[in-house]
Amino acid sequence: MDILGKALMDYHNRSYTEEIITHSSLDEEDVLPLPYMFREYKQMPVLEQVALNHCKGEILDVGCGAGSHSLYLQKNGFNVTGLDKSPGAISVCKQRGILKTINKDFLGIEKMQFDTLLFLMNGIGIAGKLKNLDRFLNQIKLVLRPEGQVLLDSSDILYMFKADDDGGYWIPDDLSYYGEVTFKMTYKNEESEPFEWLYVDFNTLSRAANFNGMACELIKEGEHSDYLARLTFK
């Protein structure tokens, strides 16, 4: 069920009547405003703007969604390819004028290499669980050219858990890592299957990168426990 793709197509085709609602294992319900998915550069968070300004060479925009980042880069002369496993998202990207798209899961990319891999809007979250991060980093090493870079943003969501008087946090026993969250999306009375999503703090990301032979650099910290990082080969 391509709920994201259906919603993006509705908005693009001017059939916009409601938002996507997300439900998480953190007992939170939130709204994913569809207009936000079609934002221009000046409407993007600072971390995203900084990431776009650090792009170089041939770029793969992983989890491109409606293609706002790809479109900005393409308009500024970059050779960019938008990748998303949502057929609806890729259809919208094409209709918006993005010249190169791939409708595939990132792990399915073969025999292609890029100078910049872009994982924005917590794009590394597609790893799902911390134990899967090594697999994703190994895939990154296959797709990234020797002098290339990975630009990604994520968040340390420890603040979302209850703190005790000693400065510690109450983490549920069934979580191997507190950044592992399960989501569902609903849109126009349709509900997605549950899917896993990973928020990874910078120190954990840095350790995983180093274990896999990559350097991890903190480019910029955000105002809400979020950050922008760059991965390169050592």
Automatic annotation (TrEMBL):
EC number(s) stated in the UniProt entry for this protein: 2.1.-.-
Gene Ontology molecular functions: methyltransferase activity
Residues in Methyltransferase domain copies: 59-148
Single Gene Ontology BP annotation: methylation
One Pfam family cited in the UniProt record for this chain: Methyltransf_25
UniProt name for this protein: Class I SAM-dependent methyltransferase
Mitochondrion listed as a keyword: no
Top-level taxon of the source organism: Bacteria
Keywords: Methyltransferase, Transferase
Organism: Maribacter cobaltidurans
